[in-house]
Amino acid sequence: xxxxxxxxxxGYGLNTExxxxxxxxxxxxxxxxIHLNDIIAKPAVLKKAQIIVFGGGFSYGDxxxxxxxxxxxxxxxxxKAIEEFLARDTLMLGICNGFQIITSAGIVPGALVANDVPxxxxxxxxxxxxxxxxxxxxxxTLSIPIAHGExxxxxxxxxxxNLKKSGAIALKYAEGETSKHFDMPxxxxxxxxxxxxxxxxxxxxxxxxxxxxxxxRFTQLPHWTYLRExxxxxxxxxxxxxxxxxxxxxxxxxxxxxxFHGK
Length: 263
Fold this sequence. Notes:
Blueprint: E1 5-10, H1 17-26, E2 30-35, H2 36-41, E3 51-54, H3 68-87, E4 91-95, H4 97-104, E5 111-113, E6 121-129, E7 141-148, E8 152-154, H5 157-166, E9 169-173, H6 177-181, E10 195-200, E11 205-208, H7 224-233, H8 250-261
Helix pairs in contact: 3-4
C-alpha cells in the first residue's frame, strides 16, 4: 500500500517541523520538510503531496501580526498552487502559527489576535470535537498543549454565524481532565465561542491553535507521573511499558494517513 506523502513548510521562524515529520512517519506516511522559498521557486512540488502542513513557530518574528507576513507570501506566490492542491482530494493542516498563516492567506476564515491576557501562554488545554473531519475521525475529546501569544480566534458576527451553520467549528476549549487537574480556566485566550480550531473544504483543511505533535507519547503528558502512580496502585500495566505508548495527539496524524489508505 502506497504511503501518503506530506510536505511540511519551513523557514522564517517556523520551528515544529521535526516533531511533525516524526509524528506522520510514525503512523505510516512519508514526509519532507521544504523551505518556503524552495516551494515558491518550484511550486510543482506540491503536486507530489497528499498532505500539506503549516506548523507552529514564530514566522517573521510575529512582526505585523502572527502569521501575517508568511500568509501574505503564501497567498501572493502560491495562491494558484494551493488552489490546485485543494482541488484534489487532499488534506491540509495548520498548527498554531500555521493556523494563523492559513487564516492570513485566506484559506480559512477569521483571524487569530492577541490573547485577552496579553502575554505568551504555554500550557495544556482540553478540547471537544464539534464537527466531522478526516483529521478528527473517532475523536470526541482531546487534551494537548498550547503555546501562543496571539491565539484568540476572532471573526465578525456574520462569519461566526456562517461557521456555526456550516458546521465549520471543529474544536472548542472545554473543561476537562487537565484543566481540572491544574485548576485552570478552560479557555486560555478569550477565543470567541471558545473556538480552538476550524475546518474548511469539507473538513479536509483543519486549523487549530493547540499542538497535537507535542502530545504523541504518554510521557509527554504534563501529569504523566501522577497518572503512573494511579496505574501502579491499581495494578495496571504502565502505558510506556508496552509499545506503542501513545499520547492523545497521535490519533489526529493517524487519521490523516488512514484517510488515504481507505481509498
